[in-house]
Structures are given as C-alpha cells and as structure tokens.
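Many introductory courses stop at the sequence. We go one step further.
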Amino acid sequence: MKTFMSSKMPAIIGPMIFTMLRSHLRKQLYARGITRHTPEIIEAKGRSDVDALADFLRDQPFLLADRPSTADTALFGLLAPMIYWPMQTPVASHAKSVQVITSYCDRMRQRCFTGKRPAA
C-alpha cells in the first residue's frame, strides 16, 4: 500500500497519508477487537454469537415476524459472506455447519434477493 500511494502522490505527501491511514486502521482494528484479542478469543466469541443467534432463530423463519424485516436484511448482510463465500475462518466454518443459520440465510436469499416477490 505504501508503494502504491507513493507512486500516485507527490513524494512528500504519500508517506504522510500512508501513516495517517495506518494509524486510523490500527484504531479501527483495535475497536473491533481484532488486535485486542487473541485469535482463540475471537474464535470463541464468534462461535458463541453464531450459537446464540441459532438459539434465537430456532423456531422462527425470521427475526421479528413471519416475514423479513429491515433487521433481517442487516443480519443477512453480516451472515451471507460467511455462508456463501469460501471463507476459511473458524467462525465462518462454524456458521456453515449450523443448519438453523444456513437455512435462515437460504430463506432470506430466496425471499429478498432473487428478484422474486411472494404473492400478496
């Protein structure tokens, strides 16, 4: 990134911008717990969150009602990358192994993101 920025900006500005961006990124990673916790703690927290969500959804098709809400679309936006992309992280692998979570994502994808609308 430093090399790229140096090639696109004047020599005196590139390093300063890179330093500012790096500082900002470090603060954001710390705030999200990525540089604050060990990989084992991050994995345990992620698995715990997935399991808690599965327990909450167990007998419900969607979060709040029998149809998707804005909250469901926000949740789907967080879960879909773990479920549908070939991520090789412990939390994504765990999410893919929890049937309640994968079924929920499949329902959301079918109902809200295929272009097909249910009959009114």
